[in-house]
Known about the structure:
Helix content: 55-70%
Largest sheet: 2 strands, antiparallel
Distance between the termini: 87 Å
Strand content: under 5%
Number of helices: 4
Radius of gyration: 35 Å
Shape: rod-shaped
Structural class: mainly alpha
Number of strands: 2
Order of helices and strands: EEHHHH
Amino acid sequence: SSVTVPTAITRRSPSSQLSISAVPESSLRYLRLFKPLFSYTWVRRTKKFRKEGVLLGLEQGREQGREQGREQGLGQGLERLRRTLTRLLGQRFGEVPFAVRQQIQAIDSLDELGDLTDRVLEVKSLDELGLGS
């Protein structure tokens, strides 16, 4: 039967390749006796590493999910605020020109959209908001 010999207990032959013939018979008997123990330890370590890998993967997945959730929430918030601003402008000044709607769609800052929405009732024209047509 074939015995797998760990690198640590093999001796190097002159050609610098691993050689099973360089291992004393007593060591081979030792390996045969304790092979089940080595296998058990190997299986335990493999399971441990696999479990750690799964846990790391789960954590990375959670983090990606959180990040995607934040981005999706920000996108939804921006879109909702754009619709609110456009609706308020329409109620205040009548039909909102296409060019102004495009300017609003191009704004990617919640703060800027919020400031414009807050000022809708204070200004007398779209030009005062900086959204002139």
